[in-house]
Structure formats: C-alpha cells, structure tokens
C-alpha cells in the first residue's frame, strides 16, 4: 500500500493554490492504484483550517513539520525532513509543483534517493498492468508529447506545472489523519537567508489574473502593443504576450504565455495577433474562455477559440475600446 505523496507549498502559514492542484493529480493516481494519498507540509506555521482544506481536496494523510526555519525555502532544511520521511514510509510516487521550490527540491531528493525525476509534466497517468507512473510532458521544442517512466526505481518523482490542471471537487466532510513530524536538527545549512524581497514585476502576475489579454507578432511594432495594454486595462485584466512579442522586447518575460513562459487558467483569455503555435497553446489549455482576434481564418488558434473575430486587429481593438468606454460611462 505504498502511498502517493504531494509536496504542499505555503506562504505565511497559508497553503498556495498549487498544493490543491497537486492533490487533484495525486487523487486520480491514488484512486487508480487504490492506495492512500498523503500531502507533506513544511511550514513555519499553518493557519487554522488550512490542513482541513488539504483533506477537503483529497488528502487521506497529512505529514506536517512546523519550524521557524521553513519560513524561507532552503533545499537543505526541507531535505533534512523529507529524506528520512521518504525512507521511513517508502511512498511509490512523489509529486511537487514545477515552481522554483519544487524544481530545486525534487532534483536534490532524486539524487539523494537514487531515483529518476521528470520535470514539468502536463499530464500523469498509471500504466495498466504494471502500475508504473506515466509522466507526460512536451519534448523536442514542444513538437511531441513524451511519456517517461522509471520502472526500476522508487519513488517515482515528477513536477507538475502550476495551473496545468483544474482543482478537484472540495468535500468539507472529508477527514485526514494528521501526522506531526519533528524536524531533525540541522547542524549547518550552507544557505543563509539574509532577507526576502518580492520580485519587482510580481504585482503583474498573469497566473492569478481572471482576464488576460495577450498580443503577438501581429501587432507589428512596440508602439502598437499599447493597444493590448489599453484593452487589458479596460477589461480589468493583465497583459500577456507570445514569445515572439517578448523576444522583440514588446513585453517582458514574466508576461510570456506558453511552454517556456507561464501556464495560466484565466476565466477569459484574449489572443490578439497570435497564430497559436503548439508552444503557445501549451500555456492556455486550462483557460475557461478563449477569444481570438486574427486576420487569418486558418490560424491554428482558431481550433481552440470559443469566439473568433476574423479581421484586422488595428480596426477591431479601437472599436472594442470605444464600446467599453461608452459602457463604463453609462454604468
Ligand atoms: C522550445 C520552444 C519554446 C517556445 N515557447 C513559447 C512560449 O512559451 N510561448 C509562445 O508564444 N511561443 C513559444 N515558442 C515560439 C512559437 O513556436 C511561435 O514561434 C510563437 O508563438 C509565434 O508567436 P506569434 O503567434 O506572436 O507570431 P506568429 O506565429 O508570426 O503569428 C502572428 C499572427 O498574427 C496574425 N496577424 C498579423 N497581422 C494581423 C492583423 N493586422 N490583425 C489580426 N491578426 C494579424 C497572423 O495571422 C498570425 O496568425 C516556443 C518555441 C520553441 C521552439
């Protein structure tokens, strides 16, 4: 009955959304294998009700280690708890988020445990017959989907892109067994955290926005990109961009949507002058509604559009801005 584990992430005692996304993935795998699903929380403290939320989203077991040293992530302090925990309990699968934390922690654990790791998975499944974890992710520039497995080593480890899967159903009647873990003393941590400063561009997070308006090469030049910014502002949303637009310096990298940028799941995604290359589409698979403005009625992006406006963006955006402006005045 080797368990499936997810590594939760916290900030100031609250669980980050990605912790629940991992549970959605982990729950499906644990159900298939008919084994318990556990979530591991390493935090300086956890706010009241947070552990119950993990249970509500599918955790059967919650391992919690609380210690002031976890206020900031360092790989050694986390590994000092996780390595003995993994060795004692022998989970068959460990999932973490493909965030800075997950991408730093899991390779370290994989090396120490002598097992494999697939980074940045967009899909996970259980192989029929063997029960091996199928770790699926884009490869070769996003042109193929590769399925990777590690049949000879346990635990099988993978990181999953934030926002690449919807949350599971919340059931507040679900209960989990909470197991408190004493963090072992760490004589020396080679990393000393001197302070934490938020990244300058963090206030414009397209990952958290309900509406994202993205522009691509169809905008033709930097000055025209202001049309995207104006439309995003008029709709109360954030600005996104294709890689082409970012490479040309029309938007900065934190705004890039796609395989080598951000995966987002806004309520509304508006793609303007973007052709819909496979690498761009990889970032918007979980967007709820997609509106496209493009003058090519055979553009790839039309395949996934809920609404498509075929025409010249330079004629269409000013009309949309005018209408939105008129509507604001009458409200
Ligand atoms: C390893 C790798 C990773 C990558 N990662 C990403 C990624 O994360 N994100 C990403 O976006 N790309 C990524 N790419 C690049 C991707 O393959 C495409 O090159 C890129 O997405 C194209 O950007 P675009 O749609 O803006 O430009 P184009 O493909 O040139 O499309 C421009 C579109 O604008 C339309 N258009 C032109 N003029 C007008 C007009 N006046 N009115 C309306 N429509 C107009 C055109 O019809 C066309 O559809 C990656 C590529 C590789 C190899």
Characterization of this structure:
This protein is α/β, with parallel strands linked by helices and 331 residues long. It folds into two domains: 4-180, HUPs (Rossmann fold); 200-330, TPP-binding domain (Rossmann fold). It is 27% helix and 24% strand. The chain is built from eight helices and 17 strands. It has helices spanning 17-33, 50-56, 75-89, 100-113, 226-234, 243-247, 278-281, 313-330; strands at 4-7, 10-11, 14-15, 37-43, 61-66, 93-97, 117-121, 123-126, 133-139, 144-148, 156-160, 177-180, 211-215, 238-241, 268-272, 289-294, 307-310. The protein has a seven-stranded parallel β-sheet, with helices on both faces. Strands 14-13-15-16-17 form a five-stranded parallel β-sheet. Helix 3 crosses helix 4 (100-113) and helix 5 runs parallel beside helix 8 (313-330). The radius of gyration is 22 Å and the shape is elongated. It starts with a strand and ends with a helix. The model has no long low-confidence stretch (mean pLDDT 93). Bound molecules: flavin-adenine dinucleotide (FAD). Flavin-adenine dinucleotide binds at residues 141-142, 216-218, 242-245, 256-261, 273-275, 277, 279-280, 283, 293-296, 299, 312-314.
Give me a quick take on this structure.
By secondary structure, the chain is α/β, with parallel strands linked by helices.
- The coarse overall form would be elongated
Number of helices: 8
Small-molecule binders: flavin-adenine dinucleotide
One letter per element, helices H and strands E, the order comes to EEEHEHEHEHEEEEEEEHEHEHEEH
Q: What would you call the structural class?
A: alpha/beta
CATH class of the largest domain: Alpha Beta
Percent strand: 15-25%
As for the number of domains, it is 2
Tell me the major beta sheet. 7 strands, parallel
Strand order of the largest sheet: 7-11-6-1-4-5-12
User: How many strand segments?
Assistant: 17
| Residue-averaged pLDDT | 93
Low-confidence stretches: none
User: What is the helix content?
Assistant: 25-40%
CATH homologous superfamily identity of the largest domain: HUPs
CATH architecture of the largest domain: 3-Layer(aba) Sandwich
Radius of gyration: 22 Å
From the N-terminal CA to the C-terminal CA, the straight-line distance is 59 Å
CATH topology of the largest domain: Rossmann fold
